[in-house]
Amino acid sequence: MLTSPATKYQRFDPVxxxxxxxxxxxxxxxxxxxxxxxxxxxxxxxxxxxxSQKLDMFDALVKCGFKEIEVGFPSASNTEFSFxxxxxxxxxxxxxxxxxxxxxxxxxxxxxxxxxxxxxxxVVIHMYNSTSPAQRKYVFGKSKEEIIAVAKNGxxxxxxxLHRLTESGTKVTLQYSPESFSATEVEFAKEISEAxxxxxxxxxxxxxxxxxxxxxxxxxxxxxxxxxEWICTNIKNRESLIISLHTHNDRGTGTAATELxxxxxxxxVEGTLFGNGExxxxxxxxxxxxxxxxHGTDPKLDFSNMNGxxxxxxxxxxxxxxxxxxxxxxxxxxxxxxxxxxxxxxxLNGYDDHKTIWDxxxxxxxxxxxxxxYHEVIRVNSQSGKGGVAYLLESEFGIELPKDxxxxxxxxxxxxxxxxxxxxxxxELKQMFWKEYIERETPFSLHHFHADGVDGVFTCRCSMVxxxxxxxxxxxxxxxxxxxxxxxxxxxGAPKFEVVSYREQSLSSGTGASALxxxxxxxxxxxxxxxxxxxxxxxxxxxxxxxSAVNRTK
Length: 554
Ligand SMILES: CC(=O)SCCNC(=O)CCNC(=O)[C@H](O)C(C)(C)COP(=O)(O)OP(=O)(O)OC[C@H]1O[C@@H](n2cnc3c(N)ncnc32)[C@H](O)[C@@H]1OP(=O)(O)O
Ligand SMILES: CC(C)C(=O)C(=O)O
Ligand SMILES: [Mg+2]
Known about the structure:
CATH superfamily of the largest domain: Aldolase class I
Low-confidence stretches: none
Number of domains: 4
Largest sheet: 8 strands, parallel, barrel
CATH architecture of the largest domain: Alpha-Beta Barrel
Family: Belongs to the alpha-IPM synthase/homocitrate synthase family. LeuA type 2 subfamily.
Strand content: 15-25%
Number of helices: 19
Function: Catalyzes the condensation of the acetyl group of acetyl-CoA with 3-methyl-2-oxobutanoate (2-ketoisovalerate) to form 3-carboxy-3-hydroxy-4-methylpentanoate (2-isopropylmalate).
Bound molecules: acetyl coenzyme *A, 3-methyl-2-oxobutanoic acid, magnesium ion
Subcellular location: Cytoplasm
Structural class: alpha/beta
Number of strands: 14
Strand order of the largest sheet: 1-2-3-4-5-6-7-8
GO biological process, one term: L-leucine biosynthetic process
CATH topology of the largest domain: TIM Barrel
Helix content: 40-55%
Shape: elongated
């Protein structure tokens, strides 16, 4: 039996912040982004990336527009160290990109980290130690004062070595993370951060980064926002700090926590592509950036080749992007269901007319903006309706079914798709359409048709096969179609009917015929039936459409 949660777990105490301001703020501009793919993402992989995979990813991150990239934990392994050296020695870091490295507050590790950075143009040295009650108790077995001493000592060890970088021209920014910040008492997080600030002495001209991680997501995003606002309001010398967010996704709200944290006053966001990272992952930066984009704010990151980015990510990390992953997943712009397809199709047509503000139902952004095609948007299975079927026929083959004919063919296609029990392609739908309308050759099939006339009086002569027997028929009317209808009823024994609707269209090359005609007839007992015919000759296409409609009355 499951333990009662009340006896095993406890609610996370919210921060006391009665006059919180973040709920009425809006995000007006992109934050400073820092990708931690090559460190936090990498450390969470069963098989971490090798140097060449890390180089590939580094280049891709630069291409997306990241100006700050945490490239690794150089004291962790030879791979991590030599990756840094290759980036620096091979001059692979663009002038406007800063590399960031992570290190614990330990002397040997700090020493190695500094060595790994010699020769770089600009770097962020990111030091962390963990501060929550559970970490203090279990991992370090230290009091609050002793944990502060670990942080101050690490900060000093770094400070003492800075001249080795700055003297050779490297610009260094310092970053401190009270790891497990969101599970730490805010007063203690402030105290330890201020202790590090005392050592590093940041100024408004030479700021340090204070990164406040939701190392393990333990609370609701509004609580994280309260914590961030509390720190922003209460910490000394706020103007000398760049407040940075670093969320994980244990409760599934990493994106929300980051966005609310930005409302609460943060300046900077750390995260990874597609949310790779420890356990349930880091914040997915693509999501937050695209959320800004869909509100009309330039995210200052370029995800216009989303498929290329996914290919690189999957190749280098061995991870996959789930099909429902916001913005990037394979199915996130796809509608299978009928009413959604109908609305999207109408919305896309409407957008084509005005081309101003994107307002297509069910699509948060224009899929083209991230390099996706419209043919991925509407896909047909048994949940689909006539709109989806018509969309595929039109977008893939230029077949523009009259609206009323869509109502007739939609359910026919739906029954077939339902019995197949799978998704169908546009080509299969075309085949269904051809079988249902164009290839209907019994009981009547046309062999030869000829009509001539003047001043609204036409005569036609045709040969047909009826029930496997060749017959010749003639008729008269005010046009070739009317003459043919007369011949069919009078000489071929077709039941009485009249043509009530007619449309024709030309087809693009490659479809095997240049004209497609649609005819709707009304039989003697009032039944409405559509027919369709194709031919290189438009007159013959319409005559064939009449035959198709008559054959379909049975
Ligand atoms: C939330 C995060 O993502 S933090 C980043 C985590 N990333 C990584 O750990 C990846 C890279 N890490 C590594 O390769 C290794 O852990 C190394 C090289 C950093 C250290 O290796 P080792 O010293 O062999 O082992 P290990 O990590 O187990 O060391 C733990 C010790 O460091 C101490 N420690 C842990 N974090 C810190 C810190 N930030 N500052 C100071 N000491 C720390 C622990 O208390 C523990 O001390 P103890 O040995 O007295 O119990
Ligand atoms: C090192 C820190 C910033 C970290 O990755 C975390 O707390 O999640
Ligand atoms: Mg992390």
